[in-house]
Specification:
The complex is a heterodimer of chains A (about 230) and B (about 220).
Chain A (H helix, E strand, L loop, with lengths): L3 E12 L2 E12 L3 E5 L6 H8 L7 E6 L15 E4 L11 H11 L5 H11 L15 H13 L5 E4 L8 H16 L3 E6 L10 E7 L2 E4 L8 H8 L1
Parallel strand pairs in A: 3-7, 3-8, 5-6, 6-7
Antiparallel strand pairs in A: 1-2, 1-4, 8-9
Helix pairs in contact in A: 2-3
Chain B lengths: L4 H15 L1 H21 L6 H20 L2 H9 L1 H6 L5 H30 L6 H28 L5 H28 L8 H26 L3
The chains are: A alpha/beta (about 230), B mainly alpha (about 220).
């Protein structure tokens, strides 16, 4: 059985007195995929920020690769790929410069060629020299996904990866998720409505009232789910 | 240990070359402060060296707090600091890179300020001005260290940019006294050796705040 890459034990998060996440238990092993579904403002983005170690849990314990995030050695962060609501791209740098910069700080050898390969991979070769400010929201999302996946991480956390993407973009993300799972990475992502990816055993969870529970089928299919079923 | 330092510094300098935000803010503000000082105290007089030294440090401290941390503030606004924190780069290295960038911006503005100072206060280009360089560099290292650390703290609150000078100036007072006294002495023609006590104080201040920033950055930058 693959190693547990992420383990949240009774994790809670408060903003002031306002609870956002209540005593969540969650874990992910290599090769597993999970989607966390919830309405706007329910705390999905906060959960992703907590799970990647960016925000401290108010209570409970989070383990990444068996260790608390604050005790992780810096090189271990090469194993984590995160997509947040903000694209984390430098607006005044071009698409190529952004990927080259991130390749460099991730210690990737031959970062210029690596950046170009990823630009081609996400269909942005023609926009390589355009500054991020000149990209459409969908193109920016593709670039942000490339940034998150650049170092072939073992643990991938994606906050609404399908947001702002057209059908080709959604197909691209599903292909990248499949590839990551094939090399035994764990993939956790959030979405507004439940979805399926053909050939992928996807754990469905629902975040509601700060609690995470297995998602129960109610027969409804959102437009995103229908689209992804076709892909 | 400093893996990632070079790429972050190069990226910040490239962004500054494109936007010029920090340079414009630093130079225009420091020039304004110098003009005000000249208008208030006059360019000549017996206490010319003291007034020139005071004007230099006043210009640097206010322009520095407003302009030098622009790279770090922008990184917070775009959220890119999160990507850096989730990268294999040590938080201390991110601090060192941001401190270096702030220092480069301040040195650049300082060179401009010195030139204006010479013109406004009828100072001579010569040994006195050369002797001022080490004092000046030690001063901006401490100021950049303090500004970078406190910009990280003030960036967590709304209107933090306005809060930064309020946090920086009181803490910078020991270095300000040392820097302005040493500058006044060398500008009035005294050798650098005569201000060694002030230079030692500047060095101590630099060591304290560079070390504090390097060690504390990780704790103040992480989100609650």
């Amino acid at each position: 059985m693959a190693d547990v890459l992420l383990q949240a034990q009774r994790v809670a998060k408060f903003f002031g007195d306002r609870p956002v996440l209540h005593a969540l238990d969650f874990s992910a092993r290599g090769g597993e995929a999970a989607v966390i579904v919830g309405r706007n403002g329910v705390g999905k983005s906060t959960l992703i920020r907590v799970l990647c170690g960016l925000a401290r849990p108010s209570a409970g314990r989070l383990l990444l690769f068996g260790r608390e995030p604050t005790t992780l050695a810096a090189p271990e962060f090469r194993r984590i790929g995160v997509l947040l609501h903000q694209t984390l791209l430098y607006p005044n740098l071009s698409a190529r410069e952004n990927l080259e910069f991130y390749s460099r700080i991730f210690g990737i050898v031959d970062c210029a060629a690596h950046a170009l390969r990823w630009l081609e991979r996400v269909g942005l070769s023609r926009a390589a020299e355009q500054p991020v400010t000149a990209l459409s929201r969908g193109m920016e999302q593709r670039l942000a996904i490339a940034r998150a996946m650049l170092a072939d991480p073992d643990l991938i956390l994606l906050d609404e990866p399908f947001a702002a993407l057209d059908a080709d973009g959604a197909a691209l993300v599903t292909a990248l998720i499949r590839e990551a799972l094939a090399r035994s990475a764990a993939v956790i992502f959030t979405a507004h409505s439940p979805l399926e990816i053909m050939g992928v055993d996807l754990g469905l969870f629902k975040l509601e009232g700060g609690a995470l529970s297995p998602f129960k089928e109610d027969g409804r299919r959102g437009p995103l789910r229908s689209l992804l079923r076709r892909l | 240990m400093l893996e990632g330092f070079g790429p972050i510094v190069r990226k910040d300098l490239r962004l500054e070359l494109r936007s010029g935000e920090s340079t414009v803010a630093l130079l225009s503000l420091s020039t304004l402060i110098l003009v005000v000082m000249v208008l208030v105290f006059g360019p000549g007089g017996a206490r010319r060296a003291e007034v020139a030294a005071g004007a230099l440090w006043l210009a640097l401290i206010f322009a520095g707090t407003m302009g030098s941390t622009r790279a770090l503030v922008a990184e917070r606004e775009t959220g890119c600091i999160r990507a850096l924190l989730l990268s294999p780069v040590e938080p201390g290295t991110i601090y060192a890179a941001k401190l270096s960038v702030a220092m480069i911006f301040m040195a650049e503005a300082g060179a401009g300020v010195l030139l204006i100072l010479v013109l406004f206060f009828n100072l001579e280009f010569g040994r006195a001005l050369l002797s001022l360089i080490p004092v000046f560099l030690l001063g901006i290292l401490g100021l950049a260290a303090l500004c970078t650390l406190l910009a990280t703290v003030s960036g967590r609150v709304r209107g933090g940019a306005m809060l930064l000078p309020v946090l920086v100036v009181p803490l910078f007072i020991p270095a300000l006294i040392a820097g302005s006294k040493a500058s006044a002495a060398v500008l009035s023609g005294q050798p650098l050796g005569s201000v060694i006590t002030w230079i030692k104080l500047l060095c101590a201040f630099d060591v304290l705040f560079v070390a504090a920033g390097y060690l504390l950055f990780e704790h103040v930058i992480l989100e609650d």
